[in-house]
Write a structure and sequence with these properties.
The protein has 341 residues and is an alpha/beta fold. It contains 14 helices and eight strands. Helix 12 links the parallel strand 5 and strand 6. The chain binds guanosine-5'-triphosphate and magnesium ion. The site of guanosine-5'-triphosphate has 21 residues, from helix 8.
């Protein structure tokens, strides 16, 4: 945000999105029967993954139409579909290999079962990265949220804070994105809305100093969870990565064992670039979990397969919209069902 009017415009949009649908911190206690809730949840996920479905699944259905048997061409066409749908070259080859093996074993050697083969293999790849975040294993549990500019870090923090609050947890937020005044303001607004205290300093302050204050505050208040927001940074900017490392070092020094989670937020609309981002962040600072955002607006959701295949980092959450309940714990089975339906 370069000036005040831009910043105000952004904050107004943020507030109006709340007016449309207020934060529901009582979400987990509402009376909606479980089955209905699950159905609504799957429908929402299905409509979020519609664009990815059209790029990844519809062409597979078309591939099957009019063919009588599986041959070399079938696999070539399938590979092309997988690559165009941002699954990524490595994951595409692996998937083809897996499907070919099944065909060889004569398990599913009918053309119309290509789709089922593919679905099952994708499920297997995704399931290996399903591991939910357990914030109860330390108190306070410290989460550092990192990622490139605009990937969805701050909104993810807000959604996560809202959800943890609704579970009765005491959550503290730290505005260690000191790069822009609007970054601090944005977190403050979310802090108010979710009822979480925000630890902050002035714009331009050393982010490690904010992290230092926040760790001490979280320990003094005996908070359950501390979530630290950081400024967006291009993964290729060495000095900015060093700044992040410094914050991590300070947190470690002040509270051995922390940060307990380094959550990397990746924007699914960036497709294959999300994988390069993850590799660089992993190498320079390390990350213990991934949040894949903006799946609702993305035709490149297939990248989730590449992420799961190429990086051994669990996917903790997925973002499927801008509302509070649009951050979902990653469930591979639900995801694949919604994608292929
Ligand atoms: N449609 C959609 N929009 C999202 C999602 N997650 C975040 N956004 C939007 O993405 C935009 C950027 O989100 P922020 O949370 O500000 O991103 P950030 O990573 O904190 O950005 P910087 O602090 O500038 O690096 C906002 O307009 C969010 O509402 C999502 O899952 N779906
Ligand atoms: Mg931010």
């Amino acid at each position: 945000m370069s000036n005040n009017s831009e910043s105000n415009g952004f904050l107004n949009r943020l507030s109006s999105s709340f007016r449309k649908k207020p934060v529901d911190t009582d979400n987990c206690t509402n009376q909606q029967p479980e089955a209905d809730k699950k159905k609504g949840f799957l429908n929402r996920l299905r409509s979020s993954l519609k664009k990815t479905h059209e790029i990844l699944v519809t062409p597979v259905d078309e591939l099957v139409l009019g063919r009588k048997k599986i041959d070399e061409d079938t696999f070539e066409d399938l590979e092309e579909i997988l690559i165009t749908s941002d699954v990524g070259p490595q994951a595409a080859l692996d998937l083809i290999d897996r499907v070919q093996k099944r065909v060889k074993h004569g398990q599913y050697n009918k053309i119309d079962l290509i789709r089922d083969n593919l679905k099952e293999e994708i499920l297997e790849i995704l399931s290996a990265r399903q591991e939910s975040l357990n914030t109860s294993r330390a108190k306070p549990f410290v989460i550092m949220v990192i990622g490139v500019n605009g990937s969805g870090k701050t909104t993810t923090i807000a959604k996560l804070a809202g959800q943890l609050k609704s579970q009765g947890k005491e959550v503290l937020l730290a505005a260690a994105d000191t790069f822009r005044a609007a970054g601090i303001e944005q977190l403050e607004i979310w802090g108010k809305r979710t009822g979480c205290e925000v630890i902050k300093q002035k714009k331009g302050a050393d982010p490690s100093a904010v992290a230092y204050d926040a760790v001490h505050a979280a320990r003094a208040r005996n908070a359950d969870v501390l979530i630290i927001d950081t400024a967006g940074r291009l993964h290729t900017k060495v000095n900015l990565m060093e700044e992040l490392k410094k914050s991590k070092r300070i947190i470690e020094r002040e509270y051995p064992g922390a940060p307990h989670e380094i959550l990397l937020v990746l924007d699914s609309t960036t497709g294959q670039n999300a994988i390069s981002q993850a590799k660089t962040f992993r190498e320079s600072i390390g990350c213990t979990g991934i949040v894949l955002t903006k799946l609702d607006g993305s035709a490149k959701g297939g990248v989730i397969v590449g992420i799961c295949e190429e990086l051994e980092i669990p996917i903790r959450y997925i973002g499927i919209g801008e509302q509070m309940d649009d951050l979902r714990e990653f469930n591979a089975k639900d995801f694949v069902e919604a994608l292929f339906d």
